[in-house]
Amino acid sequence: MHELAQAFALDPAVSFLNHGSFGACPRAVLAAQSALRARLEAEPVRFFARDYETLLDAARAELARFVGADPADLAFVANATTGVSTVLRSLRFAPGDELLVTDHEYPASRNALDFVADAGAGVARVVVAAVPFPVASAEAIVDAVLAAVTPRTRLLLIDHVTSQTGVIMPVAALCAALAPRGIDVLVDGAHGPGMLDLAVSQLGAAYYTGNLHKWVCGPKAAAFLWVRRDRQEGVRPLAISHGARSPRSDRARFQLELDWCGTWDPTAALCAPEAIRHIGGLLPGGWPAVRAHNHALALAARDLVAAALGVPAPVPDDLIGSMASLPLPDGKRPPRGGIDPLQDALWARGIEVPVVLWPAWPRRLLRVSAQLYNHHAQYEQLASALREALAAE
């Protein structure tokens, strides 16, 4: 499939094996965004005052079909981190409440959880469920999370696909177990859209936020926030704007507020349908074929690199999507600017791949991503370069 690399604007001199961090946007989608920006700048008042809402609703409707949701329950946000903070900053907690999270949670989202607990002057307490890695099964993850639940637990914040360890978390099973206990679930689905076959409204969560710039391959600053209908009244945007006092009754305040938080560049969000159509059109089988291809390539890459490292696969195949993480030997030199020297050594060899400092340096993981523009020879190059770089540490 490496001929599909021509559809993307990536530097051909670099083996880009890190789609999971910031994604990569196809040339056709970038061109569509440029056309929208030109339309905006040609007549900004017409665009924002007359055309914007119709364009946004059309994009939302296509996105809703793709992620399995009702358009009325969706709003666009800049990224999943914004979605997580939007929900957490809207919630109110009582003394003694516990906010549950796993030790695999994305650091930015964990920071937001810590902030809302601290902002309440210690009213709420963050409880961390230790999920083993390597992990044996989805059931082991469920057991680890439920073991940390108490009668004081009010919310679970959980990645749908963990950023550091690349594990698909059993979100639906956790939602089903927690709902009878009155515990809401906020899903940080940064990697969900495009990697997984989503049916957001059927997961059982109260809140779900997902990025569109990663596996959907939309422009940067395109993401969504889904809120279950019975929780929408309590969710307010991070920036309070005109929608807070809108006299309109043709749509819920949830969208009136989140759709307009001040002047912004909405072209990334408006390009979501183009990204969905374009990536889905690159293979004859559409999106199911894209997901299956990336999954198979991620497993092949994982096995190849695991053999080079002499380690077993730490996660079962069914808990892997389009990313896989493998344990590395402990680091010998401390990171510079948050980047492990091994990552720089691989980059100097023409390979962009993240060395994840998890759970903390000197412990490290190597995370490989698989997207349509990648091919087996790149992972073979990685395995060879990795052996060399580790020997030189």
Tell me about this structure.
The protein has two domains: 32-276, Type I PLP-dependent aspartate aminotransferase-like (Major domain) (Aspartate Aminotransferase, domain 2), CATH 3.40.640; 284-392, Aspartate Aminotransferase, domain 1. The protein has helices spanning 19-22, 27-42, 44-67, 80-90, 107-119, 138-146, 171-178, 253-258, 267-270, 272-280, 286-309, 341-348, 376-392, and strands at 15-16, 74-77, 98-102, 125-129, 153-159, 184-189, 207-211, 223-227, 323-328, 351-352, 355-356, 364-369. With 393 residues, it is an alpha/beta fold. The relative contact order is 0.16. The protein has 13 helices and twelve strands. Helix 7 (171-178) links the parallel strand 5 (153-159) and strand 6 (184-189). Helix 2 packs antiparallel against helix 3 (44-67), helix 4 runs parallel beside helix 5 (107-119) and helix 11 runs parallel beside helix 13 (376-392). The chain is globular, with a radius of gyration of 21 Å. The longest helix is centred in the first third of the chain and has 24 residues, at 44-67.
